[in-house]
Design brief:
The protein is α+β, with helices and mostly antiparallel strands. The protein has two domains: 48 residues; 221 residues, outer membrane lipoprotein receptor (LolB), chain A, CATH 2.50.20. 22% of the residues lie in helices and 39% in strands. The protein has a 13-stranded antiparallel β-sheet with strand order 6-5-4-3-2-1-13-12-11-10-9-8-7. Strand 11 and strand 12 form a beta hairpin. The longest helix has 23 residues. The chain is globular.
Length: 282
């Protein structure tokens, strides 16, 4: 088999050219044209190989959308909020159905126990048991902090969808690792999305995310989410730890840790109802 690496290609091309000149099949006056044409053929071949080895970006992005979801899911999660002066940990249960329904119930600490969040399609509500009141979250508050963490309401309930709300492309930044794909996400026109750009880094071998960076309209990187500690839940390998760090708030970060996660389970018909949102759980 011929070695068609770049170096060997140009070496064999040069040798072939010298032979043809010697045999008077071509003249030196045609040198430039031949070199240009052969070089173009070489780079066309390289681009073709690259295209064949590059996956459909939508396949990767859709996997990200469904990374922690399925037809249905149930998870036990810890959220650790850390600042320079204090830290606290929330224990909670999360139910989901597809990409449109989410219910979150906080179990501890005691002062927050019973607080719950429900999202159905484009609507979101919070229930506060101490005042026994359900409050609807307006769209303008979707990018506000959830429970004082570095995750927004939108992050928690996943109202926005990468596959539906963003244009995506695979890019190749400087110093890119050969083990990862780098994906740029730009929000589609006229959608109420605060981030001007998202950059996603995923492993090539299984599309598992490594890092997600968020940029504002001035091109400044504002926060970074890191994925680690890959575990198998219900036969699916996913990162069990997510760390969100705001770059404009030194010493602050929020860590989400999945303790357990089940996919494609039976859920009660009223799981995502306002009545169930207010239900007291043991």
């Amino acid at each position: 088999m011929y070695d068609m690496s770049a170096g060997n290609f140009f070496y064999h091309k040069s040798v072939l050219y010298d032979i043809l000149v010697t045999m008077k099949i071509i003249t030196k006056k045609s040198t430039i044209k031949i070199r240009v044409i052969s070089t173009l053929f070489f780079f066309a071949a390289v681009l073709q190989v690259h295209a064949e080895n590059t996956p459909d970006v939508n396949t990767i992005v859709e996997k990200m959308d469904r990374l922690y979801r399925s037809n249905t899911s149930y998870g036990e999660v810890e959220m650790m909020i850390q600042t320079e002066h204090w830290e606290r940990t929330l224990s909670m249960n999360i139910w989901s159905e597809g990409l449109d329904k989410t219910l979150i119930y906080i179990r501890s600490p005691r002062k927050d126990a019973g607080i719950a969040t429900l999202r159905k399609k484009n609507e979101m509500w919070n229930y506060f048991p101490k005042i026994n009141k359900v409050i609807k979250v307006p769209p303008s508050m979707m990018m506000s902090s959830w429970m004082g963490s570095d995750f927004t309401n939108d992050d928690i309930v996943k109202e926005s969808s990468m596959i539906h709300d963003y244009h995506s492309r695979i890019m190749l930044p400087e110093n890119a690792s050969p083990d990862y794909y780098y994906i740029e996400l730009i929000p589609k026109k006229d959608l109420p999305i605060v981030w001007a750009r998202i950059e996603l880094v995923v492993r090539k071998k299984d599309y598992i995310p490594v890092e997600e960076s968020f940029f504002d309209e001035k091109g400044r990187k504002m926060r970074v989410m890191e994925f680690s500690e890959i575990r198998k839940f219900s036969g699916r390998e996913i990162p069990s730890v997510l760390v969100m760090s705001p770059l404009n708030k030194p010493g602050k970060k929020t860590v989400i840790k999945y303790i357990d996660l089940e996919f494609d389970i039976m859920l009660d018909a009223d799981t995502f109802s306002l009545r169930n949102l207010q239900k007291k759980r043991n």
